[in-house]
Amino acid sequence: MKLQQVSESCHAVLNERGRVCDANSGLVNRGGGLVVDTQADVPHAQRMIELFGGVWPGMPRRVVNTSEAGVHVSGNQLFAGAEIIAHRTVPDSMAHAADPSRYRELVDDTGGFASRLVRRAFQPGKWAAGTQLREEHDFGGIALTPPTTLFDDRYELDLDGVDVHLIHVGPCHQVGDTIVHVPGEGVLFAGDTVFRRCTPMGWAGRCEQWLRCLDLIVWLDPEVIVPGRGPLCGIEGAMELKAYLEYVRDEAARCFRMGLDALEAAKRIDLGPYREWRCPARLVANVEAAYRELRDEAVRQPPDMASAFEAMYEVAKARGLAVEF
Description:
Blueprint lengths: L1 E4 L4 E5 L10 E4 L5 E3 L5 H11 L9 E3 L5 H4 L9 E5 L2 H8 L2 H9 L4 H10 L1 H13 L12 E3 L2 E6 L2 E7 L9 E5 L4 E9 L11 H14 L3 E6 L5 H23 L4 H7 L14 H12 L10 H15 L6
Parallel strand pairs: 4-5, 5-6, 6-7, 11-12
Antiparallel strand pairs: 1-2, 2-3, 3-4, 8-9, 9-10, 10-11
């Protein structure tokens, strides 16, 4: 994790690997302080607070959760007394989407010798994901703390003259997806609507909604985007992600017409330049999202992480890709 200043009042804590629980956070150090997203576990949240402490004394008075995902809300408990702001859908959705027991189960299943043998033999994707998470995260001690202030479409803050605009754009990656725009400083905290140099995951949303969100981000024309995953970028990051999603949507539609299921389609679709992005086997989650849209199915809520990791593992092995999530 590293701290980076992105404008006069805005800072970011970056986890640039972009793996499944490697999320970025933001800080606007005006008007009592505003934190954007609180990391995937308590140790990472504590480290985030330490880093932000170098540019903001004391604890910030406000927190924004850009979605219900555990990577954005699991450190909320450390901000005692703070106003926690999120879209109206987040409290109900986070009860499952951010349930730490789901992550602990993945990690715990890699612990004992007998368990390792069984998982590696019969659920290799779940075992590999749990092993990766065990190396990097500690999901103990998380007490889910819901938002205290909810909004519908937009919410605006004035932080001692610095305007901050919260805009609900979901469902993209998640139902409660929200972007945080600081127009006077040319900064946009994108949450998981932007993945930079790592493959996105269509957990719960719809491709068309995600594309509209990316068009909005480009129209807002920020100088700096703090993505949910990966390094800082400008609007080129949103444009590259849009190109990826459009490509996957079109290739998935072709495979759908051929009668292929989503897993087989993900094994066949040419990755092209996106093979160099981190975690390319996440393609299967995006094909599944495209298939749901082609079948005009409702937004999936909640996603089944274990099944998704199994599918990603199978795609990685079939295509000779590194197994990472």
